[in-house]
Amino acid sequence: MTTQSMDSATAAVTGGRSTQGQCIGAMPKVQRYRTTPRTKVTMLADYCRTCVSRASCPVALLITAKSELSNSLLLHSHVLKKEDYVFYVGDVFDALYVVKSGSIKTYLTSETGDEHVVTFYMPGDVLGVDALGRNVHTSSAVAMEASGVCRVPLAQLEKLAEHSLGLFFRLVYGELTRDQQRLLMLIKKGAESRLAGFLIGLSERFEARGYSPREFNLSMVRQDIGNHLGMSVETVSRLFTRMQKDGLLDVDRRHVTIRDLDSLYKLAGLEQARG
Amino acid sequence: MTTQSMDSATAAVTGGRSTQGQCIGAMPKVQRYRTTPRTKVTMLADYCRTCVSRASCPVALLITAKSELSNSLLLHSHVLKKEDYVFYVGDVFDALYVVKSGSIKTYLTSETGDEHVVTFYMPGDVLGVDALGRNVHTSSAVAMEASGVCRVPLAQLEKLAEHSLGLFFRLVYGELTRDQQRLLMLIKKGAESRLAGFLIGLSERFEARGYSPREFNLSMVRQDIGNHLGMSVETVSRLFTRMQKDGLLDVDRRHVTIRDLDSLYKLAGLEQARG
DNA sequence: CGAATCCTTGAACACCTTCAACAGGGGTGG
DNA sequence: CCACCCCTGTTGAAGGTGTTCAAGGATTCG
Q1: DSSP character at residue B259
Q2: Cβ of B133 and A186 within 8 Å?
Q3: CB A92 within 8 A of CB A135
Q4: Which end of chain A, N or C, is more open, meaning fewer C-beta atoms within 10 Å of its C-beta?
Q5: Is pLDDT larger for residue A32 or for residue A197?
Q6: pTM exceeds 0.90 for this model
Q7: Chain segment B16-29, per-residue pLDDT in tens
Q8: Within 7 A of a protein CB, which nucleotides of strand D?
Q9: What pLDDT digit, counting tens, does each position of B119-161 carry?
Q10: Measured in whole angstroms, how far is the alpha carbon of residue B67 from the centre of its chain?
Q11: B contacts of A177 (beta carbons < 8 Å)
């Protein structure tokens, strides 16, 4: 198992159909920034414990650990087409979502209208944490490819909270730490280090999910990478070319093969966790 | 009341003495990045409800609202000299701290040793939230001037959590949102917009605390501003000069007088909240 | 096959950094 | 009290990094 993308898992939950640009969450309550059509997507009854990404999903782990939860909690899967929205900024918060397959990105929309890609979510990641403190989402979440998510409604969430308050703190804390680390990186490092750090982050997340840390497919376009890392598409492209020249990695469109992980870590100014 | 700094409030809690470079928190458990001497600082028994910054302190507000809490919770004030630490990165988490007077900064230390100033805390702000999800602090907190903080130990914290879980989410969420907003700003805007945004942020926070939003003293040096905003000291200095030339504000060392708040908002690419 | 999107590459330019020098203030010690 | 020193802040000049503008190639999809 060397080459793979998260796409492979998608087939497992595909079964319902949905049309382009749909949204799972509640209907809009405040100003919209996007005008993608929104309707309810097909729902697929499913227990969380059948989740393919269970091993790296904190919610699934908690449910599995507590037998009283695993029998009482009925969660539903949703099938998303590319470009479908999970929620929009301003939506009332009524559920968290666990990514089961595919990949989701969230972005902020500033007052001046420009967007910033905040996070890329992989299977096992929990989506919607941004709204925990208030009751509206502060970011929008959209599928970058055909994806599946598992909806954890507010009511079920409260059931979970009774059993493990720490879960929520870990979730929110995880986002907080990640943001702060990225902030540090964006401020202190040059573009090449930032891209190297980004690739390493992906690599480690793939590895944590049982995939190869050295060969994977990017689920996002150059535009999103640049936006996320605060650089232009052209710079992303040039850096990939330079890194390839330097023998750090091979890039063919979305397909990345890391040749020299050590140097990549060094370039990012990070320490390698592995022995 | 036009000109003031947070210093004025400091006198209210000064009464104990402490020597340079002390730290309130627990003794170090992991690697230290700083070698400032650490001993317990003088403690000043005090009820939170006597806090000068109570109006803008979520903890104080909660305690005041719940009569059963206001009688059972005994919190202690700590007096910090300039450069005293509240906690170090790696310290075990055993309390949150509410800033009562003065000003505190927190910074991250990266693997390569360089530091990044994450947040400047004013009276009423809650410190130490970074450790809520784990049990160690991920940042260090140091007083930028003589300051007073109110310690809220873990045990008391749990008492508070029973009454209002939302409090914690608001706290953590606040940090999350602020970080994300700053991230967006750092990535999308140029240096001048970033500095303008920073000043507006300060202005709004001063105003929320009953001080003039147009005239205040910076509690941090240029170095810290630059570090926080991801630019060099020289750039900060040059931008202040330029803004002064453009009639946006007057700067005399730490003293800032905003002349044209509207233009400053425009420069930052923000919308003015006021009518 | 054409259209649209994505990606790459080149050249000029803008922004910010770095290096260097200096001015002013505040604190300390003689 | 004054001289000194260190820290903070300012300003100038040169240089680098990344952006913008422009054009062309590659891939996908209807």
Answers
A1: S
A2: no
A3: yes
A4: C
A5: A197
A6: no
A7: 333 334 566 443 33
A8: 8-13, 17-22, 27
A9: 999 998 999 988 877 789 989 999 999 998 888 888 877 777 7
A10: 28
A11: 130, 133, 138
